[in-house]
Amino acid sequence: MKKILMTAAAATAVALASFAPASAADVTLRLGHLWPSVAGIHKDLLAKWGEKVEADSEGRISVEIYPSSTLAKPPAQYESVKTGIMDATMTIQGYSANRFPLTQIVELPGLAKNGKHGSCILQGLYDEGLLADEYADTHPLFLMTHGPGLIHTADKAVKVPADLAGLRIRRPTTVVAKLLEDFGAQPVGMPAPASYQSMQRGVIDGVALPWEGALAFRLNELAKHHTEVGGLYTLSFVVAMNKSVYDGLPDDLKKIIDANSGKEWSEKGGAVFDALDVKGRKQAEEAGHEIIEIEGGIDNPDWKPALTGATEAYIKELEDKGLPGQKVYDRALELAQSCR
User: Fold this and answer.
1) Which N-terminal stretch is annotated as signal sequence (predicted)?
2) Average pLDDT over all residues of the chain
3) Which of 22, 59, 68, 274 has its CA 20 to 30 A from that of 148?
């Protein structure tokens, strides 16, 4: 009888084992970000990156993705990767004030035509070592930009700069804040996920976001007027990993991470932003919103003086701090010509 019970127990163990994975992952990476789980950046970029890493490592690396700022609030995400609260993030450099001044040169008017183009410029600057010191405390995987930022307002249409006077506009970074200030607006700093509630409550009159952001954070439900000043600004992003976590990987797994880093994924990220821009604009069109296209974009005589002044002031500010602002800006202009 004892023998029969032992045999049955052994059979049960074999049956249970058949439902278990063949082997657990050697490494689990916890990647947090600010977008909701339904957003395209989560589904079409970060989830795809995680799947590729897991497949290339044959399951030895598991990537757990935490959307909606569940591991850290947007302004703290980069620092949280540095300190090991999470293993990796995709975040906005400008949310860490004064930490990435050379990187934020790419935000200046007229540099980036779209997300893929801006990503090529930014990744190029990093790969050439011009931005390396700003990322010494983490291990960056790839950098990218979104497409052209624009102004979305709830009630008042913005057709000329004077229309911005007194409007409370959510701004993503201090660079964009300076642009808005020069037009007479009142910039209000807040992470993108807070924009919907703030506009709904009347705390702000509008937001500066690309079409992707209006789509991801449901701003097209509230903003009925959209002003496209082609090349007004763009925004930089980084997918970064905790330095100790990366350094602690065995060499073969480091190669997997390295193979899923750099230019290819940078441009994939930019392309995802561009595709989402198309969806966001289409959503506004189908809702019957007013879309105002400024003739000539940043070269429009009503808009150009303030935009040119903001660029010159930012470069001078960097130079006054002993940073090679002009050198990096000049190289960004050269890359803008060679990137496609």
Assistant:
1) 1-24
2) 93
3) 68
